[in-house]
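Troubleshooting: if your tokenizer reports a length mismatch, compare your output against this known-good record of 294 residues.
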Amino acid sequence: MVSVLILLSLALGITTLTLTVKIYLMKKSAKEICRQLGFVLAEETNTLICISSSDPSMKRLAAEINQELRLLRKERRRYLHGDRELKEAVTNISHDLRTPLTAICGYLDMLEEEEKSENACRYLAQIQNRTEVLKQLTEELFRYSVVVSTKEDLKPKTVAVDAILADSIAASYNALTDRGITPVITLPEKKVLRHLDASALSRIFANLISNAVKYSEGDLTVTMSDTCEIAFTNTAANLSPVTAARLFDRFFTVETGRKSTGLGLAIAKVLTEEMGGSIDAEYHNQKLTIKLRF
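Known-good structure output:
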């Protein structure tokens, strides 16, 4: 009887030890998979997951993950190739449009000096107006193609963000007042200094103000904190939380957008993130708020 108990205890001990070792090895393999998967997803590498364990289940799990990684890389290559082709197409189209538009504007200026009937003057004014709109949209398309294809040669230096914001609002004051908008501006008393590219920052502010001109229903509030959080708020009754979230998507426009390509906020987002900042949109009680942080 004692011998049987000893044998049972010995068998139980061996089984427990075997299970403990197996669990340890499985946990080790799981940690290896997690560590390598994090590295593979974070880096652009063709490395696959390799584990030290010979356990069939863990090896099968690693093989399945590697298969999904191969598919993910294949789809990523397809996306990057298509995205690159789109950027090149946008750049080429914008270049092709600028040349004939410049010639059209030149001929319109010459035609302006000729004698014309009243109807001809009215038609010419409409043509000039539409041509100017097309020229503005083409320039916006060209600026976007430059930003996304080269990310521009940013030259960051210490700048007063509040001063650049004030200058941008002043430069856009006529466009705002033409839409009946008198901006309410709140700036910090002390200078807010950041290491940023002044030209890119000015473009971001100009695009955000231009967005207010397109979508505002007669108001604009600009507030800036001493922590460099800037909020542009305006009434936009025809928007919704869904459309507000899509305002940064390239080529996305809403029906209330005037003369818009849907690229202004996309450019602002690219430049903001390129300089280490963040930008997002919120929509509550028919108020659109775009927040910018550096």
